[in-house]
# Entry
Amino acid sequence: MPEYNINILGLDLSFKTDAGPERVEQARAFLEKRFADLEKRGNKLSRERLLVFLALGLADDYLQSDRKLVDLQSRADRLVQKIGGPESDS
# Structure
């Protein structure tokens, strides 16, 4: 498992992950951009509060994406059944 030593939001982090370097860099860049956007809108907020808002926003994004995925899987299952998928009696 590769080990990474990167700087995110001014913090030096070391960790191991199965994710490739491109994926780690994309995640780092995404966090940096989201934090910078929050910082512009909430420049009077402390760094800690901005980080909490960042985490809250990411958690909400994840939950919304998860709900959409469950809905799409359900819709796909219904379509497969309508067209005679493996569960049908045809």
Q: What stands out?
A: The first strand starts at residue 3 and ends at 8. The mean pLDDT is 92. The two ends are 47 Å apart (CA to CA). Helices lie at 21-41, 47-82.
